[in-house]
Structures are given as C-alpha cells and as structure tokens.
Amino acid sequence: MNDRQDVARPVPTAIGLRLTGMSDRYPPADEAERIATIRAGLDVGITLLDTGDFYGMGHNELLIREALHGYDREQVRISVNFGILRDPSGGVVGVDATRPVAVKESLVCTLRRLGTEYIDIYRPARLGPGVPVEETVGAIAELVDAGYVREIGLPTVDAGTLRRAVAVHPVADVRLELTGLPHGTGHDLLSTARQLGIGISADSRLSAGPHERRGCVTCAATAAPGRSRAGTGGPHQNGAARLVAALRQVASAIGATAEQVGIAWLLAQGPGVVALVDAGWREQLTEALGATSVRLGKRDLARIAAAVGLRPRPHTRFTGYPATPPPATGSGQQPAPMPLTAREMQVLDLVTAGMTNRAVASSLGISERTAREHVARILLKLRVESRVEAAVLATQWRRSGQ
Questions:
Q1: 323 belongs to a structural domain
Q2: Given the residues 55, 118, 122, 148, the one annotated as active site
Q3: Best mean pLDDT range from 51-65, 305-319, 376-390
C-alpha cells in the first residue's frame, strides 16, 4: 500500500479532518487504511486534525501518533476534545470536562497517547452543570501558561457563555454543530464569535456515519426518534431532517453529493470558518474533498442557510483568518480592531521590535510558516496592511496605556 497516495488536489486550510469515526462510528477496517487516510489528508494540505480523548477511549489519539511519524509536528494543528465519560461497552455515561483537576488529568493522558509535548487547541467536549465556564477556562489557561496547551477551544455554547469565557482568557475557536442547535440559535453564536475574532470549526455532522459511506446526512433523516447523537434525534430531529432535505435538493440540481454540498456551504460562510470533514478511508476522503470544486449559487446558499437558521452570506472563499466585521450602516467609520490572542500579542511585540518572520519563529519556538500566519492574522485584525503600520499602532497603544 502506498501510504502517501494523493487523494485530491491541494485543499484550502478551511478544511480540517474530524477523526472520531475512525475509532467509533465506521465498520471495522484495516487500521493501516485509517493511518493512510490521515496521511493522505496531510499530503493534500489539511493541517487541522480534530480528535478526542474519548474517541475509541484513546484509540483515536494513538492513530494520530502513528500517522504523524515522518511529519513536521509544527505544521500540524491537533485539536483535542476532552471530558466525555464512557463505560467499558463504549456507552456515554456523563461529562467531566469542567472541574479544573479533571481538565489537567485528562491532558496528561492525551499527551502520553499522542506522543507530543503540547496540544494546539484543547476543548471541553461539553460544559457540565454546576461548574462556571470561568473555572474551566481558567484551568486550561494554566496549561497554556505552562506550555502544554497553545490555545483554548470551546464546544457549542450560547453567546453569553462565550463572552464570559473570553473575559478570563482569549479563546481561539468555538465549535458550531449546526444540526444540534434549536433553529436560529447558531446565528447569535456565529455573530458573536466573529465580533470577538474567534475562529469557528463547523461540525454539521454531514459526514460519514455508521450506516452509509455517503454520510450522516442520510443517517440524520432516518435515525429512530430519541437517538442521542447530536442532530439526529430527540427535539432537534426535525431540524436535522430539514437540513438533509435542503442539501439533497441542491445536490440533485447541481450533480453533487449531499455531503459535498454541505461542505461547500460551510466553505462559503466566509473567513474564519473551518469545515470538519469526517472520513474513514481514502476513497471517502477523495469524495468529500470534491466539495472544493462545488460552486453554490445565491439561491442554494440561502436555501441551506434557512434550513439551519442562519442568515445567508455572500459566497466568499476562506483566506485562513478571522472575518472583518463591516462598519455600522451609515456610520462611515472604520471598524475597531479585533482583540488579539495572547500568542498574537507576543508576535506583535517581536514584530514591533523589528524581527523578521524567521526571527519571530526562532524566538517563540514555532515554524516560520506559523509565524507568517500569525503576522497575517494580526494585520487583518488590526485593519492594517503592513508590519510597519502594525508596529506603529502597537507603539501608540503602549503610549496610551491600552
């Protein structure tokens, strides 16, 4: 088997690989094929791997460890969801992702299984009852300060909870599960994340499930009532079925699969939105990445947006950095700069000191590519076009005590 077999043309960084199905949902398969699929995704430009310490009860993280042999760890971002409790049969029995001691204990096991010294994004899979989000974020922030975690992620939360979390520590990414939300709720979260300069990883559960290689769009429409999986049963089943119907209608009209249409719609949501693709083997990944060639018209975008309760956006392609909110209508004023993360502030300090991207990378122990991406993101957030302008703005902030 050729483990480095290409599966498609290079893909935009707006696509991440969601790995949960490799350990939980798909039928049994050759583990070598799972590893080859991860490597195939990396070889065509996917840089984000989304996993969880409870996916296969640790098996998923071990897959990543094996798949990354021979790859530059600095060029791959690993996002880890943690805190779901499972019994010996694999059933979900609870959530323990909010107690500070549980947060730290989970990380120790994850680092050992992945064979890495740090996690790029660490995210509680759910926020359990009884523990304020401030305590959970504070516990992860301590791990950031210690160097074990680079950035904090959050699960799907309401806009108020997101703002409370950001007040404790910068949040890099929030998960948006479109088919698991009450109709219309996603718009508030999406808008708030954009206002705060927070990235969005969109998990609409449109990818392959346990019954069909074509994906969970079919599973969502046919799942038995009361099924607990997000977006496929209980009170949100009608919303999931509505989304499935919209995707199928558009797919039939343009000659694509429903999964491809779903991914294409996510890619059209503007900068800062990453579509998580779920694939268990290379053939399936190839089909999913065909979404990069799908072009949706305004009516298609609006139809799908209506099905998930979001207002339609213009069809724009992802640039890899947070969206720039437009100025208020009629104000004639330039929007205020977006808040920077702690890492971005470090990079800005070095840029202000006159360091090149290579020098920034060396100083912070990151790759030059990562440093370059940080600088580009900073320029976008500060609404400036050059490093010099960013340095001048930073100097003005210091003088004014901001």
A1: no
A2: 55
A3: 51-65
